[in-house]
Design brief:
By secondary structure, the protein is of the alpha+beta class. It has two domains: 275 residues, Beta Barrel (Butyryl-CoA Dehydrogenase, subunit A, domain 2); 180 residues, Up-down Bundle (Butyryl-CoA Dehydrogenase, subunit A, domain 3). It contains 16 helices and 14 strands. Strands 1, 2, 5, 6, 7, 8, 9, 10, 11 and 12 form a ten-stranded mixed sheet that branches. Helix 6 runs antiparallel to helix 7. The longest helix is centred in the middle third of the chain and has 31 residues.
């Protein structure tokens, strides 16, 4: 982009106008922004950039020389910097009610967080460190939509990653003057259909002897040899914006990314053949904290949206006065997550020159929301009763006078001034949020995007101030000895 320019939606759609190898239902799709399985989701991402272009002060920060970049790329140096970053991410999340879990700000936060500890990469390999910093500056300047694949295929869980049949995970197969060649798959590729580049790393622990798996790099998604195998497109099967208001435009998709003997230029290699550095890349830098901080900012918006759905349901069917206690309980649980978000900001700490959210409060929020999200979905379904079961087949029913008369007499709303159309419109939205196939994917996603529960619980255990708690215990034990020598 030109100096001073801020990326807008047209620029993003232009960046997607390249040949790539996306596979869906056995079909090779090269231009994703034009395909009915992905076009609306691509436009939804473009809408984020249009919002950014119209709200410079809120969404961007000054990087010098008259240039501005999205705040997600910013490395906060103070509490106020962090709050400004959160406000920008909240504004974006509100445009999709938190349903796009891998919006462009997610990876921007992860990469900038990792590079707050640039010295770790320099210790690992000065060439890799320079490559990574140069990539960050380029990606920030061009506001690249970067997704990632950092999980290996599930495979045979009884075997180590390096012992999987045919080494299904992405691994190094050769090394030449231009760079290493990689082969194999990575997951989950969320958002990869509408992203520009893919970042590859290893979040799962590696062990000695698995050096061929130990690599981190970034490449354009139209690189020859990269194959993107998409899951079912909910967007493609959405009847209409009226009938599927969320899945019609916010299906960010998930995909297997397969590298079919792809050579990675050395200037795009950030970690190389060092199994411990693969771990340190996330956990000894603020990278893991910042990528999950963004996820919590987004999730708070999503929880607030679902809470509004819950209340509107009770207003529509006339049970609000009967269930205010239940709604109050749900509101308290959602507010507690928002409180953890504000708390992790206010009690953050400095890491060198940068300001980092409180790790333990972050992981506490993750442990809590992994259980809360499916519980909230279940509570909303219980509040809805049979109202979400007997929904008319589609908006086309409204165009039939005979069917419309039946609907007018049966789809009654307790909300003043609303009739069959308004009730049907809202309940279609509610079903897409809590009961459709799209909604089911989101429940699974929110339960596992940060790892299994034992993983997030482990992070919480590891980062809690046990020593401080134990000092309190010891202080209460001090001086309480019995005057007894024993026999």
């Amino acid at each position: 982009m030109m100096a001073g320019a801020v990326k807008d939606g047209q620029a993003h759609l232009a960046a997607l106008d390249t040949d790539r190898a996306v596979f869906l239902d056995g079909e090779l799709i090269s231009r994703v922004a034009e395909h009915p399985a992905f076009a609306e989701s691509c436009r939804a991402i473009a809408g984020l950039y249009d919002f950014q272009a119209a709200n410079h002060e809120l969404m961007t920060f000054d990087v010098g020389d008259g240039r501005r970049a999205n705040r997600a790329w910013q490395m906060p140096r103070s509490y106020s910097d962090l709050v400004a970053k959160r406000q920008a991410m909240t504004a974006w999340a509100e445009l999709h009610a938190g349903f796009m879990g891998r919006s462009p700000d997610h990876l921007a936060c992860a990469v900038s967080g990792q590079l707050m500890a640039l010295e770790l990469f320099e210790e690992h390999n000065p060439r890799c460190a320079k490559a990574y910093w140069d990539y960050y500056e380029w990606a920030r300047a061009n506001d690249i939509f970067l997704t990632y694949v950092i999980i290996n295929p599930q495979g045979d869980r009884s075997r180590a990653w390096g012992d999987q049949a045919k080494q299904i995970s992405t691994h190094i197969v050769d090394e030449g003057p231009d760079g290493p060649t990689v082969r194999g798959a990575k997951m989950l590729g969320t958002g990869s259909i509408m992203a520009e580049e893919v970042f590859v790393a290893n979040l799962q622990p590696l062990q000695a002897g698995e050096e061929d798996l130990a690599i981190s790099f970034a490449l354009p998604l139209d690189t020859p040899g990269i194959k993107i195998v998409s899951r079912k497109s909910f967007e493609q099967h959405a009847v209409s914006p009226f009938d599927n208001p969320l899945s019609h435009r916010f299906d960010e998709n998930d995909a297997i990314i397969y590298f079919d003997d792809v050579t990675v230029p050395w200037e795009r290699v950030f970690v190389y053949r060092d199994v411990d550095m693969c771990r340190r890349q996330f956990h000894d830098t603020p990278g893991h904290v910042y990528q999950n901080y963004q996820a919590q900012v987004r999730l708070v918006v999503k929880l607030r949206f679902l809470l509004a759905v819950a209340r509107r349901l009770t207003e529509t069917i006339g049970t609000l006065n009967m269930v205010q206690g239940k709604l109050g309980e749900l509101a308290a649980r959602v507010a507690s997550i928002e409180g953890l978000l504000f708390g992790m900001e206010a009690s953050g700490c400095r890491m060198g020159e940068y300001y980092v959210p409180n790790r333990h409060l972050l992981y506490s929020a993750q442990v809590t929301t992994q259980a809360l999200y499916p519980q909230l979905i279940t509570e909303i379904r219980e509040l809805a009763g049979g109202g979400l079961i007997m929904l008319p087949s589609s908006a086309a029913d409204l165009s039939s006078d005979e069917v419309a008369s039946v609907l007018d007499s049966t789809l009654v709303s307790a909300r003043e001034g609303e009739g069959a159309y308004e009730r049907m419109k809202f309940l279609k939205l509610a079903w897409d949020a809590v009961g459709s196939e799209f909604a089911s994917r989101h429940t699974q996603y929110e339960m596992f995007y940060a790892g299994a529960q034992f993983v997030t619980q482990g992070h919480s255990f590891r980062t809690y101030d046990w020593e401080g708690a134990d000092r309190l215990l010891e202080a209460m034990l001090e001086g309480n000895d019995a005057d007894w020598k024993g026999r």
